[in-house]
Amino acid sequence: MKIVLMILQMIFGFLFGWIPDMNDRMSGEEFEQYVQEILKRNGYKHVKLTKRSGDYGIDILAEYKDIHYAFQCKFYHKPVGVAAVQQAYSGCQYYECDQAVVVTNHRFTAQAIALAQTNDVVLWDGDYLERLKRKANARSLFRRKKDLTALPIHPYEPVIEVLLEHGYASIELLEEYLNYSEEKAFYILDDLEFHDLISEVDEYGHRELYFTSYEEVIHQLKD
Question: Is the pTM of this model over 0.70?
Fold first, then answer.
């Protein structure tokens, strides 16, 4: 009965735009479909699964704001290592995409994080995937009563969008995606840290996000 209810929840959830919670018993293929749905609901275009064999380490191809992404999905019960980063990097080149991404329900080893920074591979861990799911559900038929479009436009809006997309904050992100100067990027991140929206910088130059939506940032900056 529990399995039947779970299946019905997933079917009706997807029909009405509500993405259900991740199932720990998912197969690798089901996880790819789960990620595919999250990408679609977050505005990614031309989202398609690659063929099961000979995929060159890439499971999903998608486009977002004229950037072509190659995703490798890893449904693991342990941290994802360097092999996934290497495969995603090579597969991205094969498909001639702009950005390689490894996405998992778990987290990444320190070695995988270091290699990803060297090879410019984006890493989405389970926490970031959960934030993307919540963001998608906010736009569903069962969305929250408060309309996010009614929120005021803040000068930091493009910054918040970039940070939410990548799941962390850094000067390099703002320099690369928004063409900000190092001084301007530092000032903005310092301001966000002052308002307890991001953490202090770590040894890799990254900062953890303490928010999961634009709405949270606006309310925090008002206080």
Answer: no
